[in-house]
Amino acid sequence: MVVTGAKAQCDARTAYVKIQNIVSSFDCKFPIRLEGIAVAKFGSVSYEPELFPGLVYRLQVPKVVVLMFASGKVVLTGAKSKEDISGAFDAIRPWLQSFRVIHDKPIGLQKGHGHGSQ
Question: What's the CA gap between 83 and 89, in Å, rounded?
Answer without folding.
Answer: 10
